[in-house]
Amino acid sequence: MTPNNPQTNPNLNEIITQLSHGENLTNLQTQSVAQTLFTQLTQSKHPTDILPLMVAFFGGLTIKKPTVDELSGMVKAMDATRTSTFQFNTDKPLVTAGGTGGDTFPTINITTPALIIAAAAGAYAIKSGSKSFSSKTGCIDLAQNLGINVYTTPQIVEQCIHTIQTSVWASAGIYPWMKPLIDLTADKATHTVMPMLYAMRLMIAAGLNPFGLKRQVRGVSQPYTETIASVLSKNGYERTLVVLGYGADETIRIDEFSNLGRNIISEVKPNGSIDTYSFYPEDIGLKRGNPKEIAYPGSPELNTQTILKILLGKDQSTRQDLILLNAASILYIAESASDLKDGYELAKQALDAGLAIEKLNQLVTLSGGNTKHFQSILKQNQDNTILAEV
Fold first, then answer.
1. To which H or E segment does residue 94 belong?
2. Where are the beta strands (DSSP E) in 11-61?
3. Taking the complete model, does pTM exceed 0.90, yes or no?
4. 242-264: per-residue pLDDT in tens?
5. Is 337 in contact with 346 (CB distance < 8 Å)?
6. What angle do CA 277, 281, 284 make, to 5 degrees?
7. Per-residue model confidence as pLDDT tens digits over 54-72
8. Domains, the chain, with CATH or none
9. Alpha helix locations (H) across 146-224?
10. Number of continuous H segments (helices) and E segments (strands) in the chain
């Protein structure tokens, strides 16, 4: 399949032919194709018409495995489409976190509650996200179910960071092509080819940075930790953790820190060097998690209830350990913790003290969210839980 679109990119056919031969592309070539895709996604009335180009380009990259230079070119194209800039004048490092998706094992939402707990424990932490891309419930789906206003203005996002040290925001508000892409991935035809488009996930993992930050925790669901870390280092990141989490064996892979088994971590150090190593839950005194406990519970409503119970400190299962471990990684990159063990202990203390649910209450309120809905779902999970107004 060789899309023909010379008007938007006269070198497109040549580039796709190179990919079909398994040849690497230059930074400028991938930047050019990505620009073409973003423009077509934004302007097209029928995004499914773009699917052949996506399959040819991202499919070709996926088959041959994308290089650091190829991904860096796409990151430049992504960054050029940002429609807003942010000013965060914080006295501590601000960290963002997220993953590629594509897990082989569907789990509860992990990063969003981890972010809230990390902020409650002292970190400055922010997350962008989208509605469900391929998982059962996306970050934005969960945040809205909790009452957070994820479509607030950039100015309110800045205010949330300055006031309560955290925010969750929809990345579609800054990348015009994001919503059309999400709509496209919801199409049945796209579901069939999604396994061929992992290079697209890697592009987004490396390039998604609506807040212009230089610190992040980024998860991948295939063994590309060093590749993504190299792209982030090349693009000026100060400190990052790129992690791939496994289960008891490598058939289970999640784009988060896992308490089920081994984690492969590629850490970008302040001097730009990359250290890749393994981490196990036992390294900080945790027992292995139970896959049944961290599995997606079957519906967005049950997922929301599960996360609320964790944030309320009512869930003492290995679900709690999983969330706290991921909060620890954020605290570490934020320099609020000396290592993952220290971060875990700080996160646990904040959770036990009731600071996590209070932080969520503050975020719902300051973002202009649905406070009545938040109080309602709290009542369903814990009688007489009424939090003070911010």
1. strand 94-99
2. none
3. yes
4. 999 999 999 999 999 999 999 99
5. yes
6. 90
7. 999 999 999 999 999 999 9
8. 1-81+176-209 (1.20.970), 94-171+211-349 (3.40.1030.10)
9. 154-164, 178-185, 188-193, 198-207
10. 17, 8
